[in-house]
Amino acid sequence: MDFQFSALTIYGLVFLALLYIAKHFTSNASMKNFPPGPRGLPVIGNLHIVNLTRPNETYMKLSKQYGSVFSVQMGSVKMVVLAGYETVKSALVDYAEEFGERPQIPIFEDINYGCGVPFAHGENWKAMRRFTLATLRDFGMGKKTIEDRIIEECGYMIKLFESLEGKPSDLTIKTSFAIGNIILSIVRGQRLDYQHPLLLKIMTIVDENMRLFGSRSTALYNVLPFFRYLPGAHSKIKQNIADLHAVISAEYKNHLKGLDRDDQRGFLDAFLVKQQEEKSDPRTYFHETNLLTVVTSLFMAGTETTAVTIRWAITYMIQNPEIQKKVHEEIDKVIGSAQPRIEHRKTMPYTNAVIHETQRFANILPMNLPRETTRDVIFQGYYLPKGTYIVPLLESVLYDKTQFQKPDSFYPEHFLDSNGGFVKNAAFMPFSAGKRVCIGETLAKMELFLFFTSLMQRFTFHPPPNVTDFYVKPSVGLTNPPVTENICCVPRSQ
Questions:
Q1: What is the pTM of this model?
Q2: Rounded Cα gap, residues 444 and 305, in angstroms
Q3: What whole-number distance in Å separates Cα of residue 32 and Cα of residue 34?
């Protein structure tokens, strides 16, 4: 009897759960003036038609059928997808306040607890964003001090590439080391040798987690509640974050011993000083959880996207040797053998255009980071209630045929006028836009120009011998990294 009762109870609970999800789905689907979308199935919604490892591909196809504002049901989560430059720009910029929140995504709530910056909420997000942005500027973001650090790191990266002697090599972790060291120097005030176990551990965790975030099991974990109780990539993600937090915790405890409020070494010191100033305030946001999550975010977002962009840039140079030749010619003409600096950017329109086109064409974060409506809003004639999950489909902006002449080709001329001068394009928004725009945009732009120009000044990039059709596809992850390929870095004569 006890077993029968227990079994009946379990079956009953499962039935009620399914009934709740189905009711939730049908009530949302029939909402007046809610955006249209494909008809879904009970419980799973539209999961059966979505490519879970590349949902952006499915959404791009659906936008052609349903227009620039449409809905999809991903398990228990009803999403509204925004497509095209005009629609995405209107939502993120013109309706910045209404689309200014971040939804509560299970895997990110598990590892961030609503703290930090990228996936934080409400006042916590505002406080941490203000402090992080101000502190990054204090420690040189956008200034000569950080430019000098980047140039120094370029030197170490060039020596590492030279040691390869032109032989085929995987550049993945090598580019991550260099970019990771910039974040490390900001966080702790000092870089690390490329063989240092701490740097290797941090970069290995970052690389693995960014890949696991884009896995099928993580996607299901975020939209089907019962996946929380099943094994999957989410378990490894959480363990990796716990390991990274342990590393950061050890670092900040070590920094506490030598903390000098009048001689702060980096972000850790600045946070710890602020924490001491507000230790008597029970409502302070300067607590350990925010410290761990903010620093983790700096490593995850501040390293991966820039390193991936540089790898794509090198890949495109190999695939387009005539473009690589033009970049070499401009570098030789404007800089010669001198040290590349940010001031050269304004006199190097072609190289600048190639970097911008790399960011556009590589499509590093195709779905952007999701938003959530902060209040009920009528947007382009559709009613979006408060708490609606929003996907600003960034790929649809960067590949918008109304904004780019050849959106499906690598074409630097998208950012050049008829006289060869550099021109901006309003639809170029790889760092997103509005209230949640990437706080590291200025740093990333500086890194991309200095690293790319320094590498192109010293090397010509080739495919491995006997490879005649060198074409690299994007891999799977939260970002859009290139599939790992061996590349030859051949020193140029100076």
A1: 0.92
A2: 9
A3: 5
> Using an 8 Å Cβ cutoff, are 402 and 426 in contact?
no
pLDDT tier for residue 142 given thresholds of 50, 70 and 90: confident
d(CA 182, CA 192): 10
Element (H, E) at 462: strand 459-462
- Checking if the pLDDT of 114 tops 50, the result is yes
Query: Read out DSSP for 75-126?
Result: TTEEEEEE-SHHHHHIIIIITTTTT-B----HHHHHHHTT-SSTT--HHHHH
Phi, psi of 119 (to 5 degrees): -115, 20
Instruction: Kindly state the tokens that stand for 88.
Output: 């995405």
Question: What digits encode the pLDDT tens for the residues 53-70?
Answer: 999 999 999 999 999 999
CA distance 98 to 81: 15
Backbone angles phi, psi at 419, to 5 degrees: -100, 5
For 464, which DSSP code?
P
Helical pair 144-162 and 172-188, crossing angle rounded to 10 deg: 150
- Cα 367 from Cα 219, distance rounded (Å): 13
Residue 443 pLDDT level (bands cut at 50, 70, 90): very high
CA 346, CA 84: separation in Å to the nearest integer?
30
Contacts 24+ apart (CB under 8 A), 472-478: 472/315, 472/319, 474/362, 474/363, 475/211, 476/53, 476/54, 476/211, 476/214, 476/215, 477/210, 477/211, 477/212, 477/213, 477/214, 478/210, 478/211, 478/213, 478/214, 478/304, 478/365
Query: Mapping DSSP to helix (H, G, I), strand (E, B) and coil, where does residue 37 land?
Result: coil
Report the C-alpha gap between 390 and 377 in whole angstroms.
Answer: 12
Helices 233-257 & 288-319 angle (0-180, nearest 10): 110
Residue with tokens 């791009």: 60
The CA distance from 251 to 247, in Å, is 6
Mean pLDDT of 326-353: 97
Lowest-confidence range among 355-359, 371-375, 481-485? 481-485
Helices (H) and strands (E) in the chain, counts: 16, 9
257 CB contacts (<8 Å, ≥6 apart)?
A: none
Question: What is the CA 94 to chain-centroid distance, rounded?
Answer: 23
- For the chain, give the percent of residues with pLDDT over 90: 84
Q: Contact, 118 vs 297, CB < 8 A?
A: yes
Angle between helices 288-319 and 122-138 (to 10 degrees): 60
pLDDT tens sequence across 456-468: 999 999 999 988 8
Structure tokens at 252: 């900040």
How far apart are the C-alpha atoms of 142 and 415, rounded to whole Å?
Answer: 22
